[in-house]
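Most newcomers find our protein records easier to grasp once they have seen one. Read left to right, the backbone structure tokens trace the chain's path through space. Nothing more is needed to start thinking about how sequence determines fold. An example says more than a description, so a record of this kind follows:
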Amino acid sequence: MTFSAFMNQNATQWVILIALLTGVFSIHNYFWSWLIPHLLKRKRLIFRMAARMRGPSRLIMLVLTLVIVVPLMSLDRGTTDILEHVAIGSLISAFGWMAILALEFLTERSINRLAVHEEEKYADRAQATQLRVLRQSLRILIVLLTAGLVLSTFESVRQYGVSLFASAGAAGLVLGFAARPVLANLIAGIQIALTQPIRLNDVVIVENEWGWIEEISSTYVVIRIWDLRRLVVPLSYFIEQPFQNWTRDSSSLIGSVIWYLDYTVPMDEMRRKLTEIVEESSLWDRRTVVLQVIDTTEDTIQVRGLVSARNAPTAWDLRCEVREKMIGWLQAEHPQALPRMRAELDTKGAEMDGSVRRT
């Protein structure tokens, strides 16, 4: 049947059908724009949920109108079958759409009630991460299930699927291999939601880059680098590869500061000065302050200071502050303690061969 013949077949009935669909569309708009807000103005939660369902509910009303009216029309069997398939497919899609919107509404409401941006709220951050990852996984499952149900309404597609599975062979292996990254990320998302190796706003080091977990999707993780770059990493990376998580159980960190000094440095005075510096700093969390000689060379000693702070950025700033103030103190009070080269002149030997002995 040509398109013109299709449209000319009982033209009056088509005009009536289009008019009915237009009327239902207008009624739905009035209902959702005026009546729903008036009826649910005191029930804000239900109103916000209903507002999100405007699109799928409109599609459902149009499909129901089509289902009721089409059997009353004098159409040939082929046209009726086409309209029935369109109606069934649209109805399944509308319910899938509605399920996704309900899932997003409920998870967003739960996430917004959590203090995910507060460093010490580990339980809230963990729960928000679980909700986000599970939402992404469930969304994929709903889309796949909806698409499968829509395609299964067509006999030709259903038979093709059966024949495809029956003749799996090499084609099945190719399809399975192609789908492996998607399935790996989907499984990794479920593992991350359950085991919590990373959470939103965790401080991590990945591929030698230091940053915060900014976003966790169904297939990738976005890391905000300290210089505001974004590192995008596949979700499966955090299951298969080692990485550093600085805030897995606590955001507190111990930072180290290294100085290379002369053997004449007064260690006791330096320890007292380090304690004085951190006590005057608002960055120190008053937990750890240690100064030790950790190595020696023929020219210098290696002195390490350990100081603690409440989080990674603060620890970095505290380390820089301690390093700068200690260098300034050494320059002002003990300049001889800074690294230097010594030479001892052997006057007796110098008279004979001019030798200089290095110490």
